[in-house]
Amino acid sequence: MTDQAVDIGGTKVSAKGQRPAAGSAPTEGQFLGRTRELKELRADIARAGLDTLSGRKAPRARVLLIAGKPGSGRTALAEELAGQVAESYPDGVLRARLTEPDGTPVPTERTARELLTALDRPTPPGAAADDLSEAVREALATRRALLLLDDAADAGQVDALLPDTPECLVVAVSGGPLTGIADVRPCTLGGLDTKSALELLDRFTGSVRITVDPLAAEGLVELCAGQPAALVLAGGWLAARPQSAVADLAKQLRTDGEEGSPLARVFRLTYASLPTTAARILRLLSLAPAGLVDPHTASALAGCSVGAARATLDDFAGLGLVRPVESPLPQYEVPGCLLPLLRALTDTHDRPAELQLARARMLERTVRLLVSCRAITETDSSPAREKLAGMPRALRFPNPRAAADWLRIRQPALLASARLAVADGELDTLARRLMAALVRAMVAHVGTRAAAPELYGIHRLVLDVAERRNLPREKAAALLNLADLDAQTGRTAEALARYRAALDAGREANDPYATGRAMESVGGAHQELGDYDRAADWYGRALAERLARDERVDAARLYGRIATAHTYAGRYGEALRNWRAAVTGHRRNDDVAAQARALSELARVQEYAGRPEESLRTCQEAVEWARRADDVRLQAALQLRLADTLDRLGDPAAARLHRGAAERMLGDELPEGVMAMEQGANAYEIRSASAED
């Protein structure tokens, strides 16, 4: 049966995965050589450590270090070792990269989040790096897992994630020693042995050109110093020129001189052979966020069509200049060992203004894709349909599922784009648009709660831009969003500080929405902290703002929040007065359901105040309004409240009738669930949610 193809971004992708790039090496039997290194590494796993030799139990996981220059095949060796010993670690292999493609160390907080997500553990938004790394160690304490930490910049990054159990194994990849980690077992890599290097070339060229001139082939291996990355580029150059002999390539490398590393010399030769347009695209790939590029990214950077960009990327993959990423969508990775060489070329060949324009095109394309990604979820909205219809076909998604898949697969690159745009500092307007579009797309496809950890990081970036550009309105919005996420995860004191800062920013911007919301949220934070007097005071300030602007709906809601604070403080008289004001406000707003809920809460407080007869009458009135609102659940909850009140008044027969009515309304649902529902439906939230993304 033919695989179905999905048209996303102007390219057709098999449902089973990405098609292999033309001229690329076979995927089977990918790993070559390193037999001695693998044998030593496996022996180090079984060898007794210093603690064992001294009679103590090892307190932490064993650490194996694979050290080598970028392009030496160090990551490939780590992956091969992990594959060989994976059966001994039934809880799986966890992977994390500790350095960005530009050489910036990845924050421990982000790495720990990735590991916790892989372990299906919660990752509270805004949690400190120490708390998250401790959560990683706790999660691994009862597991037997292998942790592969790639491209470690220093020992501190590895030490923060070391499991506190000898049952786990850590394989760290780095450019040098990890000083400070006890009993680390290093394995330093050089070049491949000649036999393995020739096999690697053979995969690109076929056996004939190797066997007809073995001395030239061995000379080429020597010129490449046996470095896998250099050999891959050499193999790609030969694969693209079937008529050239191995000796031809070796001669050109000797003619080029000995300036630079073997990898740099082979790269210069490959780059010089590229057409002008392809060479420009290759240079601009150094701007790709997280070193990940898809046809849309390449198209935007170069200003060419998506189809032309895809064909060029496939050609680059055949030459060994990029690596196809295993993904249902076409996606490629720029090898980290080539990025410094590409950046050096951009410095000499491209003007800063041209590079800035390329970045701007890439960010603008990303924004438009994110807008399309969100709009496909709103096809029942006429404006959304018109927006989609006005977009080029290459930017439209065929259905919401395709858009969600694209968002999930490209999320690392999208988040990296936001970080790079903010760090750049010259494209802040585009950066703000990008982050707004990213937040809306993630909320639409993932949901606010599920995406909270990522949203927290995005809101912090928005705050950075707002403070840098002195944008008080955006600063207030970012602080409110961050405070909401802090409050949701129980960091109420931190949330209170941010709500106050948001209030100051809102006042500076003369933004009534931000000011009113911040006041109400400050009150909610005080209420959560048990300071009901301050809560009522801040709710009152927010109410005065709403009344001054004649915002009747919000004013009615705030009367209820003030009443709730007074109820918690035991001031039932004030609570009753404010609930009556809330009932009046909802009635004037013609909000029948809200009026019924407010009457329900009024009846509750009357009962607390020792006025059961008044509570009975108010509850009966609430039942009538709930019936008019067609809110069956609220009617059932009120029937149960009536039953409890009648029991207290000494009328058990009437109480049974009301309980029976509640059971009939809800069928088999348990009364306990009804009461929980009622409390959840009528309790006023601690924070007011933003009406905007």
Bulk shape: elongated
Write down the Rg: 32 Å
Arithmetic mean of pLDDT:
87
Main β-sheet, spatial strand arrangement: 4-5-6-3-7
Helix content: 55-70%
CATH superfamily of the domain at 35-188: P-loop containing nucleotide triphosphate hydrolases
Question: Strand portion, in percent?
Answer: 5-15%
Architecture per CATH nomenclature, i.e. the level-2 architecture of the domain at 35-188? 3-Layer(aba) Sandwich
Q: How many strands in all? A: 10
Q: Largest sheet at a glance?
A: 5 strands, parallel
Return the CATH topology of the domain at 35-188.
Answer: Rossmann fold
Q: What is the count of helical runs? A: 32
What is the class of the domain at 35-188 in the CATH system? Alpha Beta
Structural class: alpha/beta
Task: Please report the distance between the alpha carbons of the first and last residues.
Answer: 44 Å
- Low-confidence blocks of residues: 1-28, 668-693
Q: How would you portray this structure in words?
A:
By secondary structure, the chain is an alpha/beta fold. Among the domains are: 35-188, Rossmann fold (3-Layer(aba) Sandwich); 194-272; 551-693, Alpha Horseshoe (Serine Threonine Protein Phosphatase 5, Tetratricopeptide repeat). Helices cover 62% and strands 6% of the residues. It contains 32 helices and 10 strands. The strands form 3 sheets. Strands 4-5-6-3-7 form a 5-stranded parallel beta sheet. A 3-stranded antiparallel beta sheet has the order 8-10-9. α6 (155-159) links the parallel β5 and β6 (169-174). The radius of gyration is 32 Å and the shape is elongated. It starts with a strand and ends in an 11-residue tail after the last helix. The relative contact order is 0.06. Mean pLDDT is 87; it is low at 1-28 and 668-693.
